Amino acid sequence: MRTKARLYAAVLGLSTAGAFILSTGGASSHGYTDLPISRQKLCANGTVTGCGDIQYEPQSVEGPKGFPAAGPADGQICNGGISRFAQLSSPATPSGGAWPTTKLTGGQTYTFRWQFTAMHATTDFSYYVTKQGWNQNHPLARSDLNTTPFLTVPYNGQRPPATLTHSGTLPTGLSGHHVIVAVWTIADTGNAFYACSDVTF
């Protein structure tokens, strides 16, 4: 009887440890932008409240890669197609206000920054921006975007450090409120990470 009890305890311990490893491993393998500050980071730092799960894991907006030809569906780009992060794709914050914006100047050099909780082998980082006159009253769609990235940073399968910065020239001819979609494409999985930043040119 004692042997069976010990065996049961050992199996239970192993399964619990396995579940812990799986859950922590899944939660640790991600990243997000904080320059310009992304919607998920605004939720995580408490600037925007009522965001739901994303406030606890801003690094987890992971969806299919291949954007814009593939990737998250229109209306779900900012949440990577993950329904529990749907607040990120709303044109307004959960409280009904406007998403806070970062002020930028077109044509100037800007330093983008990513924060990582795991360092995946990386294909590249790409940045897209909304068109002048885009429809701000619905969740972001490809028709709202210039689908040619204004900046692409190849990474050739390397793994980034915990914090990565790179610089590029901001697009010209834009004014007012826009959204920059940053895409981190992973080299050795079928996924990419998405971050939407609201900016004012």
From TrEMBL:
Pfam family, one: LPMO_10
CDD domains attached to this UniProt entry: LPMO_AA10
Coiled-coil portions: none
Signal peptide range: 1-29
InterPro entries, per the entry: Cellulose/chitin-bd_N, GlcNAc_Chitin_IntDeg, Ig_E-set
Subcellular localization, as worded in the UniProt entry: Secreted
Residue span, Chitin-binding type-4 domain: 30-199
Protein name: Chitin-binding protein
An annotated GO cellular component: extracellular region
Record keywords, A-Z: Secreted, Signal
